[in-house]
């Protein structure tokens, strides 16, 4: 007698959750791969400018153009990071403050790096435009050299923070309903319920109940 090798349909048919997870893992890399590559390209351009700007600038005007390109790349990197955060499912579900806390290190680091770049560019360009030619030994000034070293050293933290945020945002949990998101909503509901009960139990008879209850996610 030939054994029955057929399996029930329930054992081979994927569930709805598994189907959504497979679809999410298939579409999310395609959707955000361009943003990830663009972020890496902007960081590479900034790294190249930090490395070769003094060799490529044959005049003060070329130096100005190079610095403008660098500032635009930094601003685009910050804008791209904020855009990637805002387009996540978690942000659209009302947990934008949670995402901002998760990626505040990258955002703050990028803003500080932009300020350092603007400062070093200013102290380099002002003498060159005042003297109408390229100053051969601009780093002989102590304040310029110190600011230059600080800016170049801090750039490593900027590159690390931006790449870390970009790769972290490629997690499918940010773009679909998941157990992680459900757990956060459950914590928020329990915290709101506990705060409401404590507030109601602490009210005196006849006291108006018009209070604003703030709920924060730890």
From TrEMBL:
Keywords for this protein: Cell projection, Cilium, Cilium biogenesis/degradation, Glycoprotein, Membrane, Transmembrane, Transmembrane helix, Vacuole
Signal peptide bounds: none
One GO-annotated biological process of the protein: cell projection organization
Superkingdom in the source lineage: Eukaryota
Bilayer topology: Multi-pass membrane protein
Presence of keyword Transmembrane helix: yes
GO terms for cellular component: cilium; vacuolar membrane
Chain ranges passing through the membrane: 34-52, 64-91, 103-124
Location of the protein in the cell: Cell projection, Cilium; Vacuole membrane
Function: Required for ciliogenesis.
Family membership: Belongs to the TMEM138 family.
The protein's name: Transmembrane protein 138
Organism this protein belongs to: Adineta ricciae
């Amino acid at each position: 007698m030939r054994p029955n090798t057929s399996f029930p349909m329930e054992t081979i048919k994927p569930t709805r959750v598994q189907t959504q997870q497979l679809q999410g893992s298939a579409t999310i890399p395609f959707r955000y791969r361009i943003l990830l590559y663009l972020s890496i390209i902007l960081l590479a351009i900034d790294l190249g400018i930090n490395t070769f700007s003094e060799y490529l600038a044959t005049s003060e005007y070329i130096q100005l153009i190079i610095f403008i390109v660098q500032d635009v790349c930094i601003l685009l990197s910050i804008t791209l990071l904020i855009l990637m955060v805002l387009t996540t499912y978690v942000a659209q579900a009302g947990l934008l403050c949670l995402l901002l806390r998760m990626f505040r290190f990258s955002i703050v680091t990028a803003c500080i790096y932009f300020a350092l770049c603007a400062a070093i560019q200013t102290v380099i360009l002002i003498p060159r435009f005042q003297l109408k030619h390229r100053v051969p030994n601009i780093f002989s000034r102590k304040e310029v050299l110190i600011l230059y070293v600080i800016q170049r050293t801090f750039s490593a933290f900027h590159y690390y923070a931006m790449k870390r945020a970009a790769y972290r945002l490629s997690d499918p949990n940010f773009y679909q309903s998941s157990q992680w998101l459900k757990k956060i909503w459950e914590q928020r509901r329990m915290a709101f319920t506990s705060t409401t009960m404590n507030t109601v139990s602490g009210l005196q008879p006849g006291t108006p109940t018009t209070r604003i209850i703030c709920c924060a996610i730890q």
